[in-house]
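# step 3/5: fold
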Amino acid sequence: MLLFAPRDHSRHDWLDAIRLLGRFHNHLSGVPSRLESHRGYLVDIYEPPTAPSSTVIFTPGLSIYGREDPRLRRFGFALQSAGLRVLIPDVPSLRALRITTEQPSEIKELLISLAKDSNLVTTPHLALMSVSFSSVFVLAAATEAALCKRLNAIGLIGGYFDIEKVARFLLTSPIADPYGKLIIVRSYLEQIGSYDADTLDLLDRAIHESAIQNSRAIPLDQLFDSASPKQASVLRLLAEPQSCGEIYEKVVNLFKHSWSGYSTAINFSDSMCPVFLLHGREDRVIPVEQSRWLSASLVKTGVPHRLCVSDLLAHGNATISFRRAVEIYRLTRAFAWFLGRAKGGRNQQAG
C-alpha cells in the first residue's frame, strides 16, 4: 500500500533508492566509519565514499544493542550507500529497554543539539529517522522551532499514532509480541515502585532473552517456568486477562500524566517537512493501523507524506527477496520519494 497527500512532484531519487535496497539485501557487514562523542553520547558515523548529499540522524528503538544493533547497522550502511552521512546516537535509556518520564525530553533535546553540531552535521540538508517507539521523539523534535525549518524530511519505521491503543494491543491482544508487553509492564512496575526485586529480576531476564532472540517472538510460557511458584505468579500477572486489563488501565493513566511525553498529541502544520512512513503489514508490536492513522492525521493538516505498507517487514526486521518484484518496486519507489526530499527536494514545485 502506498499513500501520499497532498500530491507533491518533487524529484524521486531512484538510483540511490536502488543502491540502498541492494546494499540492504546483500547483508554487507562492517563497522561505521568512526565513533564520536557528543555531550556524553556516543555517535556512530557512516560516511559515504563521496561527498554526502545530506545528513540523516537515526534514533534507535528500544533495543538492547543500541547503535550496535545489527539491524540498525545494516540500515545505516544502506543509507550510506545512498549518498547520505548517517549519525546513530547511543541512548542509554533506550538501550536499557525502559520507558521513563525523562526519556522523551532527553531525546528531543539530543536531536536538536546534534542538528546544531556543525562538526557532525556537515551538510546543508538534514533528515531525521527513527524506528518503533522512538518515532514520537522524532515527531516532537520536527515540530520544534529550533529544528523545524532546518529539516528536509523525516522517516518513521514502524511508528505509532495513539500510544494508548498500542498499549491496549500489547497488553490484551493474544496476537501481540510478548516483548512489547514485557517492556511496558517492567517500566510500569518500576515507575510505581510497588513490586519486589525478584519480580523485576524475572522480568529483566525475560526481556533480555526476548531482546537477544529478536528474530522471533518467544511465548510467555517459554520465558517463565510455571513449576516455580514465583515465576508462575509473574506469568499469571502477564497472561491472565483480568490482570492485563487492570495493568492497562493503570498504564493509560501514566501515559496521560507521568508518561505524557509519549503521546503524539503534536500540533502538525502545513509548514512541517515531508514525512515518510514505513510499516510492516504483519507488525505484532506496533500494528500497521498506527501508521495509517498517522497518515490520516497528516492528510488533515496538509503535510506532504508517503505511507508504504510492506509485506517484507516485521517489527524492525526485513527480508528482501528480489523474486518479489512488485513488492520491491513499491519499496524502491517509497525510498526514492524519501531520498529525494532528504537531499533537498522539500521545496521543489510541480513542473
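# step 4/5: annotate
The chain has a mean pLDDT of 89.
# step 5/5: archive (pending)
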